[in-house]
Amino acid sequence: KTPLEKVGTNYKAHYGPIWSLQRNPAFLKNFLTIGDWTARIWSEDCRESSIIWTSYQKTKLTKGAWSPTKPSVFYTTRVDGTLDLWDILLRQKEPCLSIKVCDEPIHGLKCHDNGEVVAVGNDVGTTYIIEIAEKLVKSSKNDKAYLTAMFERENRREKIIEAKLREQRLKMRAKTEINNQKP
């Protein structure tokens, strides 16, 4: 196969560059992208649009990473030096926790495997290690089931929207063909 034939799918993820991309470690069909002023969660089953997204932030996002221990939690960093923690089971339009780490843009982000610390690095070469509260690190017994249900619900919703859009495009194409055939 040629390199182009090996590309399985492409997603129109953001209006500009994608600064970060990572699969959810517990739900491998789902991945997080960071670009423009949003974080978006995608499913391999929905190709037309993301299944969950944050509202547009006031400051450009620079990086994103899933928590390795709590599947509903991800982190984003911003150009204003802020680290945000999001738990999509709690809320999706605003972070659960925002920490102003420094005054410079943060472009490095890495979660420790145990989820208890997050490292961020800024544009002037400084690395910060941030400890995360235990309740934001450990999943409750129902978290995975709730997140599974949420991802399945959002997948169904997006598939319905995709089908309706395809139907509308077909109707428009048929209407155009009919209009072009008229003498």
Can you walk through the features of this model?
The protein has a single domain (3-181), classed as YVTN repeat-like/Quinoprotein amine dehydrogenase (Methylamine Dehydrogenase, Chain H). The protein is built from 3 helices and 11 strands; from the N terminus they run αβββββββββββαα. The chain has helices at residues 3-6, 134-137, 143-181, and strands spanning 18-23, 30-35, 38-43, 52-53, 61-66, 73-78, 82-87, 97-100, 106-111, 117-122, 127-131. The mean pLDDT is 90.
Binned strand content: 25-35%
Number of helices: 3
Q: Quickly count the domains.
A: 1
- The CATH class: Mainly Beta
Quick one: biggest sheet? Answer: 4 strands, antiparallel
Q: Kindly report the spatial arrangement of strands forming the biggest sheet.
A: 1-2-3-4
Strand count: 11
How much helix is in the residues? 25-40%
CATH architecture: 7 Propeller
Based on CA atoms alone, the radius of gyration comes out at 20 Å
CATH topology-level fold name? Methylamine Dehydrogenase, Chain H
Given helix and strand content, the structural type is: alpha+beta
CATH homologous superfamily - what is it? YVTN repeat-like/Quinoprotein amine dehydrogenase
Q: What would you call the shape?
A: elongated
Spans of at least 5 consecutive residues whose pLDDT stays below 50 are: none
